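User: My collaborator and I are trying to settle a disagreement about how two of our proteins should look. Neither of us wants to argue from intuition anymore, so we agreed to look at predicted structures for both before our next call. Could you fold the first one, then the second, and keep them clearly separated?

Assistant: That sounds like a sensible way to settle it. I'll keep them separate. The first protein:
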Amino acid sequence: MPVPAPDHPAYPVGLRLAGRRVVVLGGGTVAQRRLPALLAAGADVRLIAPEVTPSVQAMAEAGELRWEPRGYRPGDLADAWYALIATDDPAVNAAASAEAETARVWCVRSDDAEAATAWTPATGRSEGVTVAVLTGRDPRRSAAVRDAVVEGLRDGTLTAPRHRGRAPGVALVGGGPGDPDLITVRGRRLLAEADVVIADRLGPRELLDELPPHVEVIDAAKIPYGRAMAQEAINNALIEHAKAGRSVVRLKGGDPYVFGRGMEEVQALTEAGIPVTVVPGISSAISVPSAAGIPVTHRGVAHEFTVVSGHVAPDSPGSLVDWPALAGLRGTLVLLMAVERIGAIAGTLIRHGRSADTPVAVVQEGTMAAQRRVDATLATVAGRIAEAEIRPPAVIVIGDVVAVGHGRTTGEEVR
């Protein structure tokens, strides 16, 4: 059968290779790139090559494929469904290609695409969607189109709603510290597929404006000393919408399990029989100091960091924090929700042995356009916060790492 003329378009098709024999000739870098996708498809791979790259050898030693360390022989393509010919010998490639043609085995040739009966598309995957792009003789263009489509699917800018097998449930999505670019790609994709979004004030608010008009957005903002939606009401709303068959995203700031009451919501949903997925987020405890030029650990300065909630005063009976023990640590201390009580916290740390000269940085609206940083010491931090009129949300970093970084980021810096 003659090979189709190269100007004819290829006919796209998805091959189901699970359990079916695929023969790969050559164990170089081409095979190394192509093998993972074949193995992921469940193919029964038979690799024939005198030598292979270390990565390919590792696949063989792990039992992922069968390697025969020799050259090609006529008959090697018997019983194959698909063949990849990628040796560095044009004569061998031509002979194997001729055998494939006779045996009616679809064959890819790395050295001569026009002589092949099949072409390998530029492929990418995102949550069950496989994208395959062919642009004839321009593989770089294929890769560029593939990358654009896959990135759009992952970050939610290209929507591909599920119409079959879409199960209702709840996804607890950590939205990161506030900058919409810092949500995870999975979180953004789930947000794009949601029917209902129940959002906290500290989540990436700008992403809500990108949602389609049919998406119901429920404000679960917990503004300090202002109106608040009780946790029980949030739990009930999640359950109600999920039981109505909707796909619900609970959009939270930072990470759902870092002072976010995420486990309380998971427990309530589980008890109600609602499927729930937790998508981790970038915690403000690490990302906000980083955005302000502060590493929470640094070689020779701090080999540990501790994250503490400061929403309860140190001398309160309801405090679960061992402040005397924290005062004795040498590492970095990161305080969340502590702006209103920093005076009492600083005084307690000093009283139990932490130096009053310990550097402190307060970062308000971290990662956002309004970000600003105030530098102080444990002895002066309460006064500096009052002077600068710092308001929540803000992250407070205590320790020598504050003085390490000299880079500054966008936003006003107050000294």
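The second protein, kept apart from the first:
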Amino acid sequence: MGVLPTMTAGLGIAASPTAWTVFGVAVILLLVALSGFFSSSEIAMFSLARHRIDALYEEGISNSAVVKELKSDPHRLLVTILVGNNLVNIAMSSIATALLGYYLTQGQAVFAATFGITALVLLFGEIAPKSYAVEHTESWALQVSRPLAWTERLLYPLVVVFDQLSRVVIGFTGGHAAIETSYVTRDEIQNLIKTGEREGVIEADEREMFQRIFRFNNTIAKEVMTPRLDVTAVDADDSIETAIQTCTQSGHERVPVYESDLDTVIGVVRLRDLVREHLYSENGEATLRDLIEPTLHVPESKNVDDLLQEMQEERVGMVIVIDEFGTTEGLITTEDIIEEIVGEILEGEEERPVDRVDDRTVLVRGEVNIEEVNGALDIELPEGEEFETIAGFIFNRAGRLVEEGEVFTYENIELRAETVEDTRIMKARVTKHEDEAGPPDAERPGVEEL
């Protein structure tokens, strides 16, 4: 005798096996539908971005307030869905085992129920509902919000217990309670950008801009600044005419002003103020010090994202970068920061920082960041705490001053000091060789391995 007939006989209820089979199958089908409901609800609710929920709520869309309320405590929402889904799936398996007990032995019934219910749940309780929810995230989230709210009330005691228990377990294992974190991660967004470029939806230059935006938040002032050796400045005791000449010869619209030396920068002057004072001043008694505007001194480790916001708030177009000893390391302009996102803004006959010679070779300025070179050739030159530029990389690996024309190799990368002025590497030629192409570069005469 099967399990279900034994139970009903004990209760004094008479029913034929056929009747119980029909009733059990109907219940299982209902439970499969509920399993699909919970599975699709999880995908829809946690794929719906917070900003879209706020927008729907502001537009007064039906059920958007319920969605907003449920997502206000996402951990509780996730526990509700999981408790409901597991109750349904366990009940489904138990009923299937009892029904099959009419016709099979106990072992056969358990085996058949396990695999049969697994197939049903996978097809109609997981795969199909979740696929639908992915395609109709917004509309489905609005539709399931009220049933989910009723389910939370119905299962309230269980939800509260498992909500608290899960938080304790997560805390004990060293995790955090944000197990309901959005399914879209930073890495996934970057992969979507690459996919969009492959499919032709995003252009190559647009992809590069997106990538720069992702890097922007991790960029520090030292990586963006114009180094001290390239800084053009004027002495506070210089005449206005001298300052105008310095600006025009250097091609800069503003320059820093110092006292004694570049480590004591007291502000900046703008070319337009200098010219206006020189040409149109009535008394002609103003000095360079009268035209100085204040600036900011920031550490070389300052985050560029924060720095841009500070420059906007303080309304300054140039800041001075200092090291841990207070020594001037360089300067940053608003244009320098903007170029981190949109790319180099060239003026006149200014050369490109990275000039592509062919598919495997680029000619780069010495101060170009290693990350930019890596991106141009799809290589992985390492960055260190002592250097961020391609010139710094060569100097660090060589361990000495480098002469013009010297060639070095790092793995399958060839680096040539193309132009050297005094002790500075002004340009370098970087070539990527195929790993299988010929003997190692270090075996060629005149080539040093880094």
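Some points you might bring to the call about the second protein. The chain has 17 helices and 13 strands. The two ends are 81 Å apart (CA to CA).
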